[in-house]
Amino acid sequence: MATINKNKNIKTANTKAATANTQTAKANVQSATTATKTATKTAAAISAQMSLMDQIQQVEFTIYELILYLDTHPEDTFAIEQYNMSVNEHNALRAQYVKQYGPLMQGDPVNANTWTWGLSDFPWDY
Amino acid sequence: MWIYEKKLEYPVRVDKRNPELAKIIMTQYGGPDGELAASLRYLNQRYTMPDNKTKALLTDIGTEELAHLEIVATLIYKLSKNADLEELRAANLIGHYTEHGKALYYADAVGIPFPIECLTAKDDPIADLQDDMAAEQRARATYNHLMNLTDDKGVYDTLAFLRQREINHFQRFGEALQQVQESYACKKVIVQGASITSNVAVAGTTTPNVQGVSTSSNVAGTSTAANVQGTSTASNIAGASKTPNVSGTYKK
Ligand SMILES: [Fe+2]
C-alpha cells in the first residue's frame, strides 16, 4: 500500500515538474529571441555573413534546447509547437545562407562552378 | 551516422593571444572531465540503456558534446595561434611544443594524456546516469575554475555558454534517471530479479538531495556567468533551486 501511495505522489510531482519545465522551455525560447536581438546588433557591424550565421546559431540553439527537453518530456505539445516553428525558421535562414555563401553541410546544394565546400574557411579560421 | 556542419554551435571570440590560457583550457579538450570524455562516455553508454527515450537523450547530448569539443579546440587554437617560442616557454608549453608542435593534443591542463579509464559504463542505467550527472557537475566546476582564471571577455563569454550547457545536461540526465527509476518501480519491469528494485529504492531517496544541493550552490557561485549567457539559463537554475519539485520529486 505504501508503494501505491508513493507512485501516486510521484505522478503528481511529475505533472508539477512537467509544468515547471514547460515554463523553462518558454523562458529559454524567449531569452533566445532577446539574445538574437542583442547579438545581431554587434555582429552586423562585423559583416552580413557573420550576422546571418549568428541568427542561425541562435535559432539552432533554441532547437537544440527543445530537443533535449522533449527527450525527457515527449508529450509536451507546447514544446513540440515551438520546436516546429523554430525548425521552419532555421530552414529558411539556412537556405538563405547556403545560397549566398556556399554549403554548410554535405548534402547542401552548391550554387557555383567550383566545389566551394573545400574552399571556404573552417570555423576555427574565421 | 553523423554529418559535419561547417560551423560552430556558439561563436568563439578571442580578444588577445594567450598561450597560457590555451594550456589550461586544454583540460576541457582532453582531460578526464572534458568534452571528449563526455561525448565518448554518453555515446558508448547509450547502447545498453533500457528504453529508446534514454537512448535518444544520450545520443543527443553525446552529439552536442562533440560540438563543444570543436568550440574548445577553436579556443585553444586561436589563443595559441602565432605564439612565438618565447611565449610558449613562458606559458610552460615547451614540452607540448617538443612533442606536438602547435598541434592540438588530447591531454589535460598539466599535459597528462587522455585517460581512457574515465569512460565509465556499467550496463546499469542508474549507475550510468548518476555518473553522467556527476560528470556534468565536474565539467561545470572546471569551467568555473577556468572562468576565474581569465579576464579575456570573449573567452569568458564562450566558457560561460559551455558551463551553462553542463547545467542543462545535468537537469535532463536527472529527469531521465527519475523516469528510469519510475518505470522500474511502477511497471515492475524486473528483468534481472530483485536486485534492481532494491537499487531503485536506494537511488530514489538520494537523487533529490543530490540535485537540490548542487544546483542551489551553482546559483550562488555563478550569477555573473548566468547573466552573460542570458536569462534563459539563469531562470533555469533559479527555477531548479527555488522550486525543488522540478528536481526533488520524491520529496513527499
Ligand atoms: Fe555536458
- Content of β-strand of chain B: under 5%
What is the chain-wise order of helices and strands of chain B?
Answer: HHHHHHHHHHH
Query: Could you report the average pLDDT of chain A, rounded to the nearest whole number?
Result: 76
List unreliable stretches of 5+ residues of chain A. Answer: 1-27, 29-43
Instruction: Identify low-pLDDT runs of chain B.
Output: 189-252
Descriptive report:
- The complex is a heterodimer of chains A (126) and B (252).
- With 126 residues, chain A is mostly helical.
- In chain A, 75% of the residues lie in helices and 0% in strands.
- In chain A, helix 1 packs antiparallel against helix 2 and helix 2 (48-72) packs antiparallel against helix 3 (77-101).
- Chain A has one domain (2-125).
- Chain A has three helices and no strands.
- Chain B contains eleven helices and no strands.
- In chain B, helix 3 (35-45) runs antiparallel to helix 4.
- The longest helix of chain B is centred in the C-terminal third of the chain and has 35 residues, at 153-187.
- Residues 189-252 of chain B have low confidence and may be disordered.
- Fe (ii) ion (FE2) is lined by residues 38, 65, 136, 139, 165-166, 169 of chain B.
- Fe (ii) ion (FE2) binds at residues 38, 65, 136, 139, 165-166, 169 of chain B.
Q: What is the structure about, briefly put?
A:
The complex is a heterodimer of chains A (126) and B (252). By secondary structure, chain A is mainly alpha-helical. Chain A is built from three helices and no strands.
Keywords:
heterodimer; A: 126 residues; mainly alpha; 3 helices; 0% strand; B: 252 residues; Ferritin; 11 helices; elongated; disordered C terminus; binds fe (ii) ion
SSE blueprint:
The complex is a heterodimer of chains A (126) and B (252).
Chain A: H1 2-46, H2 48-72, H3 77-101
Chain B: H1 19-25, H2 27-30, H3 35-45, H4 52-80, H5 85-90, H6 94-100, H7 125-148, H8 153-187, H9 194-221, H10 223-229, H11 231-242
